[in-house]
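Batch job 17 of 40 flagged for manual review because the log was empty.
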Amino acid sequence: MKRIKILLYALLAPLFLITACQDDNYELGRMLDKSEIKFRIEQPLNLDAGGNTVILINETPGTLSMWDYGTGRSERRVDTVRFAFEGEYIIKFSAATAGGIVEMDPVTIQVTQNNLAYVDDPLWTALSGGVGNEKTWILDIDAKYFDGPLYFYGTDNGWEGACMNEGGDCWNWNPDYAGNTWLMPAGDYGTMTFNLKGGPFVTVNHKMLPNRGTENGTYFLDTDTRTLIMTDATPLHDAGRDGCVSSWGNIRLLSLTENAMQFAVLRMNSCEGAALLVYNYVSKEYSDNWVPEEPVDAGPDEGYNPTFAPGQLLNMLTGGASSGRVWNLDASGNPVDWIAGGKGWTESAASSSDWGWNTSWETAVADSWIRFDRFGGTQNYTRRQKGATTTGTFTIKEDTNEITLSNGNTLLQNPDSWMNPTASTIKVVKAFPNDFQSKGIWFGTSYDAGKDEWLAFHYIIP
């Protein structure tokens, strides 16, 4: 009904504009009589001997078309429908006029032969199991194939995530459900069964949407445009977004294989902005036979808890006897990490952007450095930051790879950040004795015993 009102308003809009300046005159246009509505339904037998191809034609000027042909609906003035299966089909036509909707008498047509070429496509088979079969799908709430049940894409993304318009609204966010359970409640969302048993029929059992319950409808898969139209049934989805999609039956396919598929529907602008809600499904057969992979423990990160020969760490830091070596915080690479159980997770500064690494850090460490040296036979430490120089000495505890800086000295500072390293004793958490010149060194500045986690900063040789 909402869709009908929108169509009627679009038709009546010019009339409203014409009469807007007339005082106290709110009369709408005249509703046409059924005798004034002209439409045709043709079955050109030269295209299909069984009458499978049906052409719908609205010949009434100034009206909007509203077709219901049993396996789908259309609003086109002229449309072509192809029925793959023989049988009797009832076609309903209504015309939206300036005065209201005129509903015409239904027309019954006969399709006398099957033409299964219209559903003979790998995508039809993947969706329904093929002619004479059915296939049941469930929402991938347990992340057996995808990372979770729901992804988000831009309005111009299409098949396999490709951007359909150059420079268009193309982006994606694919949250893992394990870390984002707020997306939707866990539970059994029901089943969605597509079949080709005498026609393209679909049954959806919405276990998490009692107001929808079980829906029985039809569907049409356009293999050229990678779109799916569901009529009188809606795909499995969550209650929280049920009111955020005006047309659940207009679906864009992002992927469809034997085991998994992705349906994209357009979220309304009023619900956090227009975007594609991409629901991820797996076949029930795949789900029932799914066996979780054994977790593979790759061990700790390369260089974690390094072993040095006597004096090797000192030489790496300073460059050797009577030498000095300058180190920079890796601001343009991967400057900070949280290394838990020997494994870090950041890949670049962007990994912790804003909440961790941010522009205040970039400003704080620009043109700044630290230096370890052995000038004058003493182990010296210098921190040069924002024109100020802090000096002292350092010692190394080789059995724990700990470095203690004298006079309360520290690594490069950023007092505006919660990560600011204030410790004077730092630990070499990761290092590469044979490749430090290209891979640098990770200094741990604070340790969370409960998580076995180091906050570590990455220093490199400039």
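Reviewer: the log was empty due to a logging misconfiguration, but the result itself is present. The chain is about 10% helix and 35% strand. Unflagging and moving on to job 18.
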